[in-house]
Amino acid sequence: MQSIRETFPSQNRPIENDMLEGGVNRFRSKIDSSRRRESECETPYGQRLLKAALPPLVDGLEAWEKQQEKAPIAGNAYYKLQEIPTKTAAFIALKSILDSITQKRTLASAAVRIGALVEDEIRFAHFSNHPQWQGILQGAKRRESYRKKRYYLIKSEKGEAAKGETDEWERWGTRIKLHVGTVLIDTIRTTTGLIDYVMIATGKRGPARFVTASDKTSEWIEDMMKDNELLCPFWMPLLDFPKQWTDKWSGGYEIESGLPPLPFIKTRDKAFLRENTEPMTDVMNAVNLLQNTPWQINQRVLNVLHETWEQGIDVDGIPQREDEELPPYPSDDCDPIEKKMWKRRAAAIYDHNAATKSRRLLVLNTQWLAKKYRDKKFYLPHQTDFRGRCYAVPSYVNHMGADFQKSLLTFARGEKIKDDNDVEWLAIHGANCYGIKGTFNQRVDWVEENRHNIFKIAKDPMAHVDLWRECDEPFQFLAFCFEWADYMATGVGFMTTLPCAMDASNNGLQLLGVLTRDEPSCIATNVAPSNYPQDIYGIVADKTIEFLKQDGDSDYADKWLAYGVDRSACKRPTMTQSYGSTLYSCRQYISDWYGETSRKKDELPFDETDKFQATAYLAGKVWQGINDVVGKPREAMAWLQSTARILAQEDKPFYWVSPSGFPCHQSYMKWETKSIKTKLGDKIMRVRFREDTDKLCAKRQSQGASPNYIHSLDASILHTTVNQSATNFNVRDFAMVHDSMATHTTKCNELAATIRDVFVKQFTPDLLQELKDSLENEHGVNLDPLPVKGTFDINNIYKSEYIFS
C-alpha cells in the first residue's frame, strides 16, 4: 500500500530550504545584534564560556590574592579588590571580556572599562546601605541600558549626598582603574586560556597591545555557531503532507533535506524518551490526523488586519503602534508624595510599553508569514509535549495563537451546508465569538436579530469597525460575518470552510469534578445537564460581590462594588485554580485585570498609593469565592500533590500512562544553584548557574503534579475524540486547541456527540484509584487515602448540552 507521500509528489523541498535558510539567518542576526551591542554573553557560545570559565577564574583570582597578602606588589589593585567579593569581581571582568570576545580591544581600554565596572560595583554596594536603596534600585532597573541605569544611580547618590544622607563617593582615577582591570584581564588569560595579547600597529604611536580571543577560542566559537545555526530552523507550514508519525524520533518534516529530526515528544528528558517502550499508536494516529488537515489563508480577514494595523485603529487584542506617553514630570517644588506617585504611574506605563513591543512584533510577523502563504494550501506539522498535549510546530500562522491569528485560517476543503442544523452550529459559533453566553437557541436568535449589522460588517468592515472591534474575539467574529453573509447569499449547498469551535467550561475543574464525582462542581462547569448553561466565572463573581456586600464597613468593598466586579475579573484566578494557582498569583491576576480595565475609565477608585492594598483585598474575596464554589476538586489536587511529594522523597518519579496510551513522566530534578549577585549589571542583576543534580525536587514535583496530570487527561480526550470522529463520522478537518475543539459546522453534531462519549468512557473507570494502585505496586510506597467521592452519575454527561459549547 502506497503512503500518502508516495501517492502525492512533495512540494515541500523549497519550503524546507527556506526553513533552513530562515533559521540560519535568524541565528546569525541574533549573533550580529549581540556583537553590535557588545553583549556576546547573551549568545549560546557566550553563556557556555561564562559558565565554564568562571570557576577556574575565581580559583586563580583567590590564589593571586593569597600571594599578594604577604607582599602586595600590585598594591592599588590588591587593596581595591579587597572591597569586593572575589566571585563578583571575577564575574564582572569575565562578562566584560566575553561581551566583546570576537572583537579586538586595546589592553588599556579593556582594563579601564573593567576597572570602571568594578568601581561601580563597590560604589553601589556602599550606597546600598541607604534606607531607600531598594526603591532607588527598582528605578534603575527600569532603565534600558547599563549607561542609563548607572546614570540614574549616580544621580540619586549625589542627591542623597547633598542632603547629607550618605557619604559622597571619592572617584577612582584612571590609573587605579587601569591597574585593577589589568590584573583581572591577565588572570583571565592565564587561568582560562580564552584570550591572548597581540601587538598591532596603530599608526603614529606605533604598535599597541590588544586583547583578543585565542586561536583555540575563536575556532571553538566558529564550530559551535556552525553546529547551532542548523539546529534551529524557522519551522514553517508545509505545502504538502507532513511526514507521518510512525515512531517517536522523526516526523512532521523530512530530514533528508538537512532539517534536524523533530521528536514526537518535545522534552529535555531524552533518556526517558529512549527507554520508554509505550507504542503510542493511537496518539500518533490522532496527531497525524491533526497535521493532515489542509489550511488556507482567509484573505479578507488578512486585508482587514493589515488595514487596522496601518491606520492604528483600536481593536481588542491588537497593540497600539505607538508607546503610551508618560505623564508630565512634576515640578521640582512639588510635594514628595506627588513625585512618588508619578514614579509609580510612570513605572506602570513603562512596563506596559515594554510588554507591548513583543505583541507588535507578533502582529507584524504573523502578517508577513500569512502573506507568504496567502494563495497556497498548506499543512501544519504537529508534535506533543511531555503530557501528550498537541501543538502545531510552525509559529505565527497556526490555529493555536491569539484571536487575530486564528481568524486568518480556514480549512482548505469545503463542506456543503445541508440543513438547518448545520446553519445553527455556524450561528452558535458566531455568537460565541461575539461573547453571547445564553442557550443555543438564544445564541441562534441573537445572530438572526443582528443579521443587518452582520451584513454591514461583511460588506465594509472598516466603515463599521465599531460594531465588531470590542467583542470577545473580534477578528474571529469578523471571519464569521464574512462566512455568514456568503451563506445567506447562497443558501443550502454553500461550501463552508470556517472552523466552528466548541469550548469547555473551565476544563481543569471539569476534569477534577468528574474524577471526584463532585456534583456541585460538575453543575458549575456544565458537566451535569441543565436547561441553561452555567457560567462558573460569573458564579464566582456573584460570590465575590456577596462577600463584598457582607464586608460593608470596608471602604475598599464599597469602592470595588461601585467600580464593578464581573466575570472577567474572576476568570483567570478561577481558570488556573485546578493547575495549582495560589492567592499570590490571584492577586497578580486581579492587578492585571484592574490595569487593563482602568485604561478605559475616566475616574478611578484607587491610585498608586493604595492600588496594591486594594487589589490584594479583592483577591482575597475572589479566592474566598472560588473556594466556596470548588470543594472536592481541591481535595483531588491536594492528593496529587502529596503523591508526587511522597514519591520524590523516595527519589521516585511521578509516572503514569494516560487513557489514550501516552506515557507521562514528571521528573523535576533539584538544582545546584551557584549564584553571583551584583548591585547593577547589563540586564543581569543576579547570575545563577543551575545544574540538575541526580535528586528529585519534592517541591517542584508537588507543584507540577496536579496541572500535569490534568493536562494529560484533556490531551487524552482530544486524542480519542479525533480518532473516533474520523473513524465513525469521517471527520477529516480539525482545529483543536486542547480544550477547544473545532471542525466544519456540518460535522459539529458528530463532534459534540463524540466528546461526550469519550468523556463517559474515559472516566467510567476510577482513574485516581488506578493511579494510586499502579504507583504503590511499582514503588512499594504507601500513598495518602483518596478523597471520598461524590454522588454525580457520570452517564448524565450524555445529556449535557453545554459541557463543550
Care to count the β-strands? Answer: 16
Report the oligomer: single chain
Distance between the termini: 40 Å
Total DSSP helices: 30
**What is the approximate shape?**
globular
Poorly predicted residue ranges: 1-9, 681-690
Q: Which structural class is indicated by helix and strand composition?
A: mainly alpha
Major β-sheet annotation: 3 strands, antiparallel
Core attributes:
mainly alpha; 805 residues; 16 strands; 3-stranded antiparallel β-sheet
Question: How does this structure look, described?
Answer:
Helix 6 (107-127) packs across helix 9 (174-192), helix 12 crosses helix 28 and helix 13 (299-311) packs antiparallel against helix 14 (336-372). The longest helix is centred in the middle third of the chain and has 37 residues, at 336-372. It is built from 30 helices and 16 strands. The chain has a 3-stranded antiparallel β-sheet. The chain has a 3-stranded antiparallel β-sheet with strand order 10-16-15. The chain has a two-stranded antiparallel ribbon with strand order 4-7. Strand 2 (195-201) and strand 3 (207-213) form a beta hairpin. The chain has 805 residues and is mainly alpha-helical. Helices cover 55% and strands 9% of the residues.
